[in-house]
Amino acid sequence: MMYIGNDIVEVSRIHRIFKMYHDHFLNKVFSEKEINVVKQKNKDAVYLSGKFAAKEASKKALLSSGIVENISFKSIQVLNHKNGAPYIDLNGIILKDVKDFKVSISHTNTYATAFVILEL
After folding, report:
1. Which of 28, 112, 116, 117 has its CB 3.0 to 4.6 Å from that of 107, i.e. a possible disulfide?
2. Cβ atoms < 10 Å from Cβ of 97
3. Cα→Cα distances 101→20, 28, 50, 60, 117, Å
4. Cα 49 to Cα 27: distance, rounded to the nearest angstrom
5. What stretches of the chain adopt beta strand conformation (E)?
6. In angstroms, what CA-CA distances link 47 with 53, 94, 114?
7. Would residue 108 be called left, alpha or beta, if left means φ above 0 and alpha means ψ between -120 and 50 degrees?
8. Is the pTM of this model over 0.85?
9. Non-local CB neighbours of 24 within 8 Å, separated by 6+ positions
């Protein structure tokens, strides 16, 4: 069985939130591993918006599948392989029914979007 999640985010919204709440926003939404990448590479709002959209899309796919009743954004890590391709890691949560979890992220200076496929 396959489930999908999709999300679109206005980059300006994430930029405003990041400027207002900086560390509080990062700590509420992103895992320690993701925050370290943000700080190391000094990533901007476009990057954060893509990661945020991917988390939201992942959450939608997981919730629609019924294998979880709730999941926090911090539990959904959006990381990158060495070649830059994004992937989803559930930050230590083991869901035995998950066969595959794919994510695609795209963005412009105005919008970021993500599409997730969850296979059970």
Report:
1. 112
2. 11
3. 33, 23, 17, 13, 6
4. 15
5. 2-10, 77-80, 86-89, 100-107, 111-119
6. 10, 27, 12
7. beta
8. yes
9. none
Distance, CA of 118 to CA of 102 (rounded, Å): 7
Distance, in Å, from the CA atom of 63 to the CA atom of 72, rounded to the nearest integer, reads 11
H helix or E strand, kind and range, residue 34: helix 32-41
Task: Quote the pLDDT of residue 36.
Answer: 87
41 CB-near residues (< 8 Å, 6+ apart): 47
Q: Which strands sit side by side in the sheet containing 111-119, from one edge to the other?
A: 2-10, 111-119, 100-107
Report the alpha-carbon distance of residue 28 to residue 54 in Å, rounded. Answer: 16
